[in-house]
UniProtKB/TrEMBL annotation:
Keyword annotations: Hydrolase
Lineage of source species: Bacteria, Pseudomonadati, Pseudomonadota, Gammaproteobacteria, Oceanospirillales
Gene3D superfamilies for the chain: alpha/beta hydrolase
Positions of the AB hydrolase-1 domain: 2-86
SUPFAM superfamilies per UniProt: alpha/beta-Hydrolases (SSF53474)
UniProt GO MF annotations: hydrolase activity
Record bears the keyword Hydrolase: yes
Protein name in the entry: Alpha/beta hydrolase
A Pfam family assignment: Abhydrolase_6
Organism the protein comes from: Marinomonas rhodophyticola
Keyword Hydrolase set for record: yes
Length: 108
């Protein structure tokens, strides 16, 4: 799975690299809510939380029955990936292998 950074589409972030990702049989490049071709359910722009983005990615993975996969994530996508891995570990699910590119950190 390839997760993009804030304000851009997954395809814009990763399309130049896709030909080089030959080790994976399948690749999932979702757009996080409100970015790329995705939208907010109410049709208006709005704030999103890391928890909300994580829950939506987890729902997609569950729907697709993806349980064992690797993640490449950039910026905001890195923060979502870290949170996703943490949430999955709390649920007893297999941890993901991750390659994080400039993961965003929101600390105090």
């Amino acid at each position: 799975m390839l997760l993009h950074g804030a304000g851009v589409a997954g395809s814009i972030t990763y399309s130049p690299m896709l030909p080089y990702f030959t080790q994976w049989r399948w690749m999932l490049v979702p757009d996080l809510k409100g970015m790329g071709d995705s939208f907010h359910h109410h049709g208006e722009e709005g704030a999103v939380s890391i928890g909300e983005l994580t829950d939506e990615v987890e729902a997609l993975l569950s729907h697709l029955e993806w349980n064992d996969f690797d993640v490449v994530a950039y910026s905001l996508g890195g923060l979502v990936a870290l949170n996703l891995n943490y949430q999955r570990s709390l649920q007893g699910k297999k941890k993901m292998k991750m390659a994080l590119l400039e993961p965003r950190f929101f600390g105090s």
